[in-house]
Amino acid sequence: MDYGHLEKNICDTIHEGQVKLGFVEESIRIYYMLSSLNGLLGCEIEHPEQMEEALKEFPAFCKERLGEVQISRQGVRFCFQVSREGVCYIHASYQENTFLQELIKVLQTPGCQIEEIKETFEKKSKDMVCEKKTDEEFDYVIYYKDPSIDEFYYCFSIGEMGAYYHRFTEYDYKTVIN
After folding, report:
1. pTM of this structure
2. Which residue segment(s) compose the domain that 62 sits in?
């Protein structure tokens, strides 16, 4: 089992939380549904018990970087508790990555429009896609054509109350949102 993508997603998710809420030196829990884990691991495991078995080696895989990682489950929902040491490692590792800070700053600007959001993405790479959505939940989706730049799909809502976003893995975007 290739755990690299799962570990990166856990790190990316914790980093996003640190940007939005601030850095706190304590363990953090991240939750995934069985279907999302399948997408991150590139597998098609149907039963939660089988996924538990598939994840048995994950804590050893990431121990050097994230310290102790504990995995628990309720039904098809899995909880990954990352140690304080892992949270500190993530904080230190992402110091150079300021994209989310810049994006959030733009979104907090009164009257923020899609043009300002696109400019923030284009600073990282002009090789991106911005699509106008026609559903009621989001107005736009932006993602990079090359997922090695940033693998997430950013879905934006822009209205009278301001602008906000949710970000999804490609798998979750295509199976849950789209």
Report:
1. 0.91
2. 4-93
